[in-house]
Amino acid sequence: MSTFELIEPEIEAYCEAHTTGESELLRRLYRETHLQTINPRMASGQLQGEFLSLISRMIRPKRILEIGTFTGYSAICLAEGLVEDGILHTIEINEEYEDRIREYVSQSPDSQKIQLHIGDAKTVVPSLNETWDLVFIDAEKTDYEEYYNLVLPQVRENGFILIDNTLWNSKVVQEVRHNDRDTQAILAFNDKVQEDPRVRNLLLPFRDGIMMIQKLTR
Ligand SMILES: C[S@@+](CC[C@H](N)C(=O)[O-])C[C@H]1O[C@@H](n2cnc3c(N)ncnc32)[C@H](O)[C@@H]1O
């Protein structure tokens, strides 16, 4: 185990064995993502998927925003906590994923509650006239600060934002190369959140690091 590995593989396997298993739909989606996409590691998978589902089921949100759909794994998990008339808006910039997302989302029990937007979140988010109970940001790392600035005013007081990959493969605690824009962006983003008086935050050392944020009341 290197100094920077968050969790031993044996521990991860044990946790997976003691976490509610994936639905047959998510298992198929995960397998197809690995067989047919170039960067399958981007998909949440069982542990993070169950974590997102649980958080959503605890909050029971009416409106969820997701930035970065990829093949739809996390969207399907997050939608599990929506109230009866709830909606999850998920935004994906790469139109090559559209057919696969629609195929799998249509088989989900929450398919009617999931609205896919193909486009750049930086233009789609301002066009959505919603108040978010829960936001999951999981897209371009160099744009994290921009997504956050766009989204925070739309989050209800006491609402939540989760941001993935905020430990960035542990690069946040290693020497940063001058041309490593992703790590530089994550470092600047984490500092910004830490100093933001509008929120409370927890950087959870789970998987690739999830920054969990609650918007405070004014
Ligand atoms: C890490 S993957 C998302 C994984 C997914 N949330 C999951 O957990 O299964 C990041 C996705 O964000 C998309 N993306 C990147 N920049 C974006 C943008 N500006 N707007 C919307 N989607 C974007 C990428 O095309 C990619 O599919």
Q: What class would the helix/strand composition place it in?
A: alpha/beta
Beta-strand residue fraction: 15-25%
**Number of E-state strands:** 7
CATH superfamily: Vaccinia Virus protein VP39
- Strand order in space, largest sheet: 3-2-1-4-5-7-6
Q: Unreliable runs, pLDDT <50, ≥5 residues?
A: none
- Unique bound compounds: S-adenosylmethionine
Please state the CA-atom Rg, rounded to the nearest Å.
17 Å
Helix percent band: 25-40%
**CATH fold naming:** Rossmann fold
CATH class wording: Alpha Beta
Mean pLDDT: 96
- Give the CA-CA distance, first to last residue: 45 Å
CATH architecture: 3-Layer(aba) Sandwich
By DSSP (H or I, 4+ residues per run), the number of helices equals: 8
H/E order of the elements? HHHEHEHEHEHEHEE
Identify the overall geometry: globular
Biggest sheet overview: 7 strands, mixed
Number of domains: 1
